[in-house]
Amino acid sequence: MDPLGVAASIATLLHVCRIILGYFEEVKESSSSRRRVRKDISSLYGYLVDLQCRLEERGANEDEWFKGVRTLAAKNGPLDDYRSIHEELQSRMTRSSLPGSLRKLSEAIKWPFKET
């Protein structure tokens, strides 16, 4: 994958992370599993921002560092896995079509993730 494609993948993941984190901000009362997921997503967001900044600083240089980053963006690689997981999380959190405060209430009452 070219540098622009890697940057686009990272930008997409950052966008999904922001949406998920926004959900957690809306729901004030959160269970321990929600707090754990929020912490994990916040950490991932930080790593992705750092990776995106480093990628932008280096540009399209074909050095060893970029070759390593490119493997992250390979088909079915870690970035694809993260994207799939985050899109599933986003899907579960936005299924409710209730308006405004009713949606927030239903989200606060029902934890959309299943314990495995």
TrEMBL record:
Highest taxon of the lineage: Eukaryota
Protein name as annotated: Fungal N-terminal domain-containing protein
Species per Swiss-Prot/TrEMBL record: Aulographum hederae CBS 113979
